[in-house]
Amino acid sequence: QVQLVESGGGTVQAGGSLRLSCAASGRTFGLYAMGWFRQVPGKEREFVAAISHNGGTTNLANSVKGRFTISRDNAKNTVFLQMNSLKPEDTAVYYCARQMGIFNSGSVDAGHYDYWGQGTQVTVSS
Fold first, then answer.
1. For the chain, which terminus, N or C, has the lower number of CB atoms within 10 Å?
2. Cβ contacts of residue 56 below 8 Å, gap of 6+?
């Protein structure tokens, strides 16, 4: 069983920055692509960013391109989401997830992920 634990959420003013971390258990972290999704009450979970198993490929939602960066440190079993120039519409619960299957490049489809963290709240005030 894989455990994913997010941290780094909080409340920030518009234009500010936050860095989310997601720590994974187990010894096979480097074999799997990872993703970040977000969700607000009453809406479907939304793709934010994904990164391939080795960090060589990243994919960002159009709404966050130029503001967010995804990265990973396989030696520390951790994936990061650096969020800059935050906007009130970025307010959501942010989840990290592990994509099914090894050596993938990172999917935008939440249905392709099998393990999820508990989420961390990000609130951006105007």
1. N
2. none
Residues 6+ apart with CB under 8 A from 124: 11, 12, 13, 14, 16, 86, 87, 88, 89, 90, 91
Tell me the C-alpha distance between 76 and 7, whole Å.
15
Q: How many helices (H) and strands (E) does the chain have?
A: 0, 11
Q: Within 13 Å of residue 119, how many CA atoms lie on the same side as its CB?
A: 12
The Cα 94–Cα 104 span in angstroms is 22
C-beta separation of 20 from 119 below 8 A: no
pLDDT along the chain (126 residues), means of 10: 96 98 96 98 96 97 98 98 98 98 95 97 97
Give SS3 for 120: strand
38/93 Cα distance (integer angstroms) = 5
Q: In this structure, how many other beta carbons lie within 10 angstroms of the beta carbon of residue 75?
A: 8
